[in-house]
């Protein structure tokens, strides 16, 4: 990079080797974004997401990796209104907490990015999709928003109701989160299902030790 960003960040995080200059260690910004980058299933409806915010989020796709650099994903931006209602009526949230019927009434998301593919779904496009979705979520958090990846929907149904030419592979809901979410470190063999207690949504995550081979 022209401004030497990577070199400077490396020095901030790991020190500057033999150079005598003292380096202040700052927490890497990804370490701040990742814990906040949760799957939010309830949003503050008084906050209206603007199309320009969705533009900024979708724009990360001009910079991310893509298998053989084919860049076959396309994005439909949806903000509050009848189209958002169509999306809401087609998506399902919180499969592990069916008794809650998430999202709770009055906290439904109203802004979406529907991610479509110009080709049939295949392993390569699915990896592109994962990279795109996670990058967009991180950008949303960077903008002070939050979101959730949704794959639990009827692809053909949403395609037809939205009048899309391309098949939707995933929906990203975006908004101002109205949920408290906490990560819980767990060990291999523990229950990995997310749960809610006293108004907090808990998400078990395996500790590093149990992820390493
Ligand atoms: C590929 C993918 C598809 C997902 N689809 C849904 C979905 O359809 N509905 C839903 O409520 N959550 C969905 N999620 C969110 C997961 O349930 C969530 O990532 C998981 O509970 C862990 O929570 P966290 O994202 O806060 O770490 C999906 C996540 C991924 C990565």
Q: Mean of residue pLDDT? A: 92
The helicity comes to 25-40%
The bound ligands are:
flavin mononucleotide
| Rg of Cα set | 19 Å
CATH architecture term of the largest domain: 3-Layer(aba) Sandwich
The CATH superfamily of the largest domain is identified as NADH Oxidase
H-E order: HHHEHEHEHEEEEH
Which residues sit in consecutive blocks of at least 5 with pLDDT less than 50?
none
Class by SSE composition = alpha+beta
| CATH topology label of the largest domain | NADH Oxidase
**Strand content bin:** 15-25%
Strand order across the largest sheet: 1-2-4-3
Summarize the biggest pleated sheet: 4 strands, antiparallel
Number of helices: 7
Number of domains: 2
> Could you name the CATH class of the largest domain?
Alpha Beta
Q: What's the end-to-end separation, in Å?
A: 34 Å
Which descriptor suits the 3D outline?
globular
Helices and strands in order, then pairings?
Blueprint: H1 5-14, H2 29-36, H3 51-58, E1 73-78, H4 82-90, E2 111-117, H5 123-142, E3 146-150, H6 155-162, E4 167-175, E5 180-186, E6 195-197, E7 200-206, H7 208-211
Parallel strand pairs: 5-7
Antiparallel strand pairs: 1-2, 2-4, 3-4, 6-7
Helix pairs in contact: 3-5, 4-6
The protein binds flavin mononucleotide.
How is this structure best described in words?
- With 213 residues, the chain is an alpha+beta fold.
- The protein folds into 2 domains: 38-178, NADH Oxidase, CATH 3.40.109; 179-213, putative fmn-dependent nitroreductase like domains (putative fmn-dependent nitroreductase like fold).
- It is 31% helix and 21% strand.
- Strands 1-2-4-3 form a 4-stranded antiparallel β-sheet, with helices on both faces. Strands 5-7-6 form a 3-stranded mixed β-sheet.
- Helix 3 packs across helix 5 (123-142) and helix 4 runs antiparallel to helix 6 (155-162).
- The chain is globular, with a radius of gyration of 19 Å.
- Flavin mononucleotide binds at residues 38-39, 41, 92-94, 148-152, 194, 203.
């Amino acid at each position: 990079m022209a401004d030497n960003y990577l070199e400077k960040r490396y020095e901030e995080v790991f020190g500057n080797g033999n150079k005598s200059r003292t380096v202040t260690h700052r927490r890497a910004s990804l370490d701040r974004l990742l814990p906040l980058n949760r799957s939010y299933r309830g949003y503050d409806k008084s906050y209206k997401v603007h199309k320009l915010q969705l533009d900024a989020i979708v724009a990360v796709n001009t910079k991310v990796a893509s298998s053989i650099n084919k860049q076959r994903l396309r994005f439909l931006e949806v903000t509050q209104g009848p189209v958002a209602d169509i999306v809401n009526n087609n998506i399902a949230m919180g499969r592990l907490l069916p008794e809650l019927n998430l999202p709770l009434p009055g906290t439904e998301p109203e802004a979406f990015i529907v991610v479509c593919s110009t080709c049939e779904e295949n392993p390569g496009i699915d990896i592109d999709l994962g990279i795109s979705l996670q990058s967009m979520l991180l950008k949303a958090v960077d903008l002070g928003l939050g979101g959730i990846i949704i794959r639990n929907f009827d692809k053909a149904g949403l395609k037809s109701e939205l009048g899309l030419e391309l098949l939707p592979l995933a929906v990203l809901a975006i908004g101002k989160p109205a949920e408290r979410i906490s990560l819980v470190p767990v060990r291999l063999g523990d229950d990995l299902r997310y749960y809610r207690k006293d108004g907090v949504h808990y998400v078990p995550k395996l500790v590093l030790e149990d992820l390493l081979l």
